[in-house]
Amino acid sequence: MVMIGLPVMLFSGVATWFATEDIAPHESLAWDMGAADARLDGPTFGEPVRQSVEGGVRFDEDGVQPNRNEGRGLSRQEIVSLFGPGSRAVPSRGSWTGYEGPRGYRESDVREIDLNDPVTAGMYRLLSGRVPRAAGEIAVSPSLGLRPGTEITLSRTSSAATVVGVVEPQRHPGHRQIVAPPGTVLADGKGVTTEWLVDTPAPVPWRKVRELNRSGLVVVSRAVIMDPPPPGGMEDPAPGGRWNLDGVVMAATGVGLVVLEVALLAGPAFAVGIRRRRRELALIAAQGGSARHLRWIVLADGLTLGLAASVPAAALLAGLCTRTRLSLTRRLT
Amino acid sequence: MSFDPVVRLADATRVHGDGPQAVHALKGVSLEVAAGELVAVMGPSGSGKSTLLNLAGGLDTPTSGAVTVEGTPLTSLTDGERAALRRRRVGYVFQDLNLIPSLTAAENVMLPRELDGVRARQARREALEALAEVGLEEPDRFPDELSGGQRQRVAIARPQPGAPRSPRSWRPCGSPAGTSCGPRGAAP
User: 3-state DSSP call for residue A68?
Assistant: First the structure.
């Protein structure tokens, strides 16, 4: 059983490790875009773009990525008009800043987002204190090591800000981040990237995403992530299919190798086992067992042993790897 | 349906190996056993008693000659058909009993019927009846947990379950030491 269980255990461990390496887009929807129906990434490109379902921008045929710097930022009104009446756009602006805290000068990511807005629900988890509401109030991620009530000086504004809460960014729980209400820290707009969380009356379909792509906009839509269009359509291909041939070939090779290894390791053991049971099999034959019956008995033996060894082994290591991966992801990202 | 004789060997020969190493275990034996008849085969060690019983019970086929069990010539049967014949028409009670150690008494008795495709529940019912007939009250014990006499009773019950209860049916009882064989249910 060990001879079967061990390779199966190793293989299921490796498979689980790689399978859980990436978080699927639909699993991280709330982390990435809260309760919004769509997220508009960055300024417009100067030209039509082609994007993946997850918002990756495709290289064109020459391998040249469209240049975002040629584009421009959009105003809230422009965005609302793009998504139609009844839509609401909430900005999420990010940059980098230094700060002077109790332990001296440090640097951190800084994000301006209104955590009181229900559209941001799920993006951050409040660990202690409260979310910032006014200018001069900030929340920090746990890795900054600051407690509510601490005062720091942000180098961007050269003014003091009070830590009022500790929030964990759900997408990157270990990330160093300062969260401030909109327009309080990144007012000068230097090196700032803006994403818009858009709340629309109706789901944003893939057709709408492509329409916005033609205006140079990259949009991640909740509806599209939950129900992606079939990849590789002739007229409107969604680039970046989930499966590629290389991956399938690699997986098939891996499975083949494991099966071969199990056969090489456990095969001789089975052969010895059958030799040892020759007398018993002969007795069954004397009682009227035909060659087919004996084959079935040996096969059932192997299947029972194989299942008893491999199923718990696979379950054990898959579970173990998933747990390890989860805790590692939480700790490292 | 009854047959007379139940077992017929006509000039049956069994040679093991070939060339200079060939061993003539049985040379031109002819034998007829009638239904209900008790036949004892006796002879010194190596005289071919076991080979004779192996041929008569369909465990082996003759090199030449013919073996007929209940009107069926064994030489014309395939391996699978001979196995079916062993399950349905022939029963062995070996001298050293040869119970399967990994099966309980009831399972040992059930085995031929189960191999024959009878459902486990029915096979078990028949096995329990057969074991009750020979007076064994611990059907769920393994052979190791039974006394010598109990094991012997299991071995005797084994050819019986579901068998046609015709008084003419004949069951050879082989023993490697070649002491006796007899009708169904007889102790070796």
Answer: helix
Residue B123, in any domain of the structure = yes
Whole-prediction pTM value? 0.52
Going by pLDDT thresholds of 50, 70 and 90, the confidence category of residue A234 is: very low
Residue A15 structure tokens: 């498979």
The residue of chain A nearest to residue B88, with distances taken between CA atoms, is: A288
How far, in Å, CA of B156 to CA of B97, rounded? 9
Position A11 in a domain: yes
Please check whether residues A95 and A174 belong to one and the same domain: yes
* Cross-chain Cβ contact B86/A291 below 8 Å: no
Task: Say how far apart CA A169 and CA A110 lie, in whole Å.
Answer: 12
- As a whole number, mean pLDDT of residues B63-67 equals 93
> Which domain, by its residues, includes A268?
2-23+243-332
* Inter-chain touch A288–B116, beta carbons under 8 Å: yes
| Structural domain harbouring B82 | 7-89
Which chain A residues have a beta carbon less than 8 Å from that of B102?
280
The predicted-structure confidence for A300-321, as pLDDT tens digits, reads as follows 988 898 888 888 888 888 888 8
- Taking the C-alpha atoms of residue A247 and residue A19, their distance in angstroms, rounded to an integer, is 12
Q: What is the mean pLDDT of residues A25-45?
A: 80
Residue A42 lies in a domain: no
- Do B37 and B75 lie in one domain? The reply is yes
Establish if A43 belongs to a structural domain: no
For residue A112, list its beta bridge partners.
Answer: A93, A180
